[in-house]
């Protein structure tokens, strides 16, 4: 992992691998760069940059939990591009990372060469969001990785045909095994800002989506997703008829990005960038 320092003094971790078209990967709310590991081995020669957002993965925790907000995290992404001397990059944004991509389209559209959204759009279904926020900051009840790999798939409603070894990877990615059980791998204070956002009036994000106008755009939706509804995905397609789109079967929120349907759209998206 490499590191850079943000304008407010945090040390953030990132991976910068390969050469060619620059693609910045932004992970989900509590996730980190490992969510793109399976995708990375399938991609053509590109420069893949994977950021651990503040408070996640190997990046510093922020002493002010209200800084775990989309504007701060979008600024971090821009500052990473500045640190790397990149005028432009495409973004693959998973869930929260896709929200950041929409915000970047308004903040600094000229820095984007294209965007791929993974199971996220301008309307986030509130029941799914409430479920996510409800689990934030809590350690799971599983005692070890073996128990988690056996029981966690039952919690993941909407996922099917996932090999057991993939669940073994997933639980190790989510939690750290300790003598007292499994522990989360992110700052539990993420819940503070997330709860504040949930209590605030719903944000109107369609103008942010519309700011992608003229950019290569792609969307993946888990066929069983409760966060990105078919209705929202259809409206995104109506507004952007040229948008690459696929539903990933046997996946809810979020597709793993190594499914055949995902890789097909990802490669078509990268071809548009080239």
Identify the notable features of this structure and list them briefly:
single chain; 274 residues; alpha/beta; Rossmann fold; eight-stranded mixed beta sheet; two-stranded antiparallel ribbon; 10 helices
**End-to-end span in angstroms?**
27 Å
- What's the oligomerization state? single chain
Which fold name fills CATH's third level, the topology of the largest domain?
A: Rossmann fold
Helical stretch count?
10
Structural class: alpha/beta
Q: Could you name the CATH homologous superfamily of the largest domain?
A: Alpha/Beta hydrolase fold, catalytic domain
Tally of strands: 10
Largest sheet: 8 strands, mixed
CATH top level of the largest domain is Alpha Beta
The Rg value, from CA coordinates, equals: 18 Å
Q: Give the name of the CATH architecture of the largest domain.
A: 3-Layer(aba) Sandwich
Description:
With about 270 residues, the protein is an alpha/beta fold. It folds into two domains: about 1-135 and about 200-274, Rossmann fold (3-Layer(aba) Sandwich); about 140-185, no CATH class. About 35% of the residues lie in helices and about 20% in strands. The chain has ten helices and ten strands. It has helices at about 35-40, 70-85, 95-105, 125-135, 145-155, 165-175, 190-200, 205-210, 230-240, 260-274; strands at about 1-5, 10-15, 20-25, 45-50, 90-95, 110-120, 175-180, 180-185, 215-220, 245-250. Strands 1-2-4-3-5-6-9-10 form an eight-stranded mixed sheet, sandwiched between helices. A two-stranded antiparallel sheet has the order 7-8. Helix 3 (about 95-105) links the parallel strand 5 and strand 6. The chain is globular, with a radius of gyration of 18 Å. The model has no long low-confidence stretch (mean pLDDT about 95).
